[in-house]
Structures are given as C-alpha cells and as structure tokens.
Design brief:
The chain contains 2 helices and 7 strands; from the N terminus they run βββββαββα. It has about 100 residues and is α+β, with helices and mostly antiparallel strands. Strands 1, 2, 3, 4, 5, 6 and 7 form a 7-stranded mixed beta sheet that branches. InterPro entries: DUF167, YggU-like_sf. This is UPF0235 protein Gura_1167. It comes from Geotalea uraniireducens (strain Rf4) (Geobacter uraniireducens). Belongs to the UPF0235 family.
Length: about 100
C-alpha cells in the first residue's frame, strides 16, 4: 500500500517499509547541507565531487544522520549517475522527512 503525500512541494511516497522521495544533489558545494525544497525535490548541497560514487556516499550519510537512521536503511534506488536521485529510507514515516524542511 502506497500513500503519497505532497507537502511543501516535496513529494513523499509512504510504503509499508518506509518512505521514497527525490533529491536534487549539488556536488562540490562549500559545505554539506539540506537546503529545502526545489521543485518537488529535497535539495542537498554536498562537498564531494560527483566521481567514483563519492557524492552518492555522502548523500546517504547526510540523509541518514539528518533522519537519525542507520546508513544501511538509506538507499539510492534511481539516479545514481544523475543529480536527480530517488531515495528510499526504511523504517520511518513521512514526518521525519518533513521535519528536515523546518
């Protein structure tokens, strides 16, 4: 069963085992931060360059830390070679993701 929530422009799909949402990654930024919503995606600025999976690893680490879950629960399901990524986080609901926007 999927439940789609469209809050603040960010589209979050809640599934039986977690949530799925999209992120827009800006690599080679001056610092790692969550910038809010851009379009219907969560915007992340990362210091890592987009080579050898460095930005993807940092994306997973940043989201895991911000959502207070283990890194193993955060997976990039689509867009590994793109700035636009689909991320699945297991074991949480929509509320922790929305709290990142405050």
């Amino acid at each position: 069963m999927k439940n789609e929530s469209d809050t603040g422009g960010l589209k979050i799909t809640e599934t039986a085992d977690g949530v799925i949402f999209t992120v827009h990654v800006q690599p080679r930024a001056s610092r790692n931060e969550i910038c809010g919503v851009q379009g219907d995606e969560l915007k992340l600025r990362l210091t890592a360059p987009p080579v050898e999976d460095a930005a993807n690893k940092l994306c997973v680490e940043l989201l895991a830390k911000a959502l207070k879950v283990a890194k193993s629960r955060v997976t990039i399901t689509a867009g590994a070679k793109s700035r636009h990524k689909t991320v699945k986080v297991e074991g949480i609901t929509t509320e922790p993701v929305l709290s990142l926007l405050k």
